[in-house]
Amino acid sequence: MVVTGVIYPAYLPPYSTVFWHYKQWREEGIIEKIRDTLHGQVRQQVKKSEVDNLNYH
Questions:
Q1: Rounded to the nearest 5 degrees, what angle is found at the Cα of 37, between the Cα atoms of 25 and 35?
Q2: What is the pTM of this model?
Q3: In angstroms, rounded to a whole number, what is the distance separating the alpha carbons of residues 18 and 22?
Q4: Average pLDDT of 37-47?
Q5: Cα dihedral 33→38→39→43 (10° resolution)
Q6: For residues 23, 8, 10 and 17, what is the CA-based torsion angle, rounded to 10 degrees?
Q7: Residue 5 main-chain phi, psi, to 5 deg
Q8: Cα–Cα dist 18/15, whole Å
Q9: Which distant-in-sequence residues (6+ apart) come within 8 Å of 2 by Cβ?
């Protein structure tokens, strides 16, 4: 299946279903929570302090 020039794997649910869930997660802030959690884990792995990020800006 091709969606807007992107090859969509056949083993996934229909694109409309996946996109509907994505929109729900985005509206509920789940995407940002996942991003923030992963970012925090990466920072811990490289032994950087969360405070360093605040001083960077």
A1: 50
A2: 0.56
A3: 6
A4: 87
A5: 140
A6: 10
A7: 80, 5
A8: 5
A9: 8
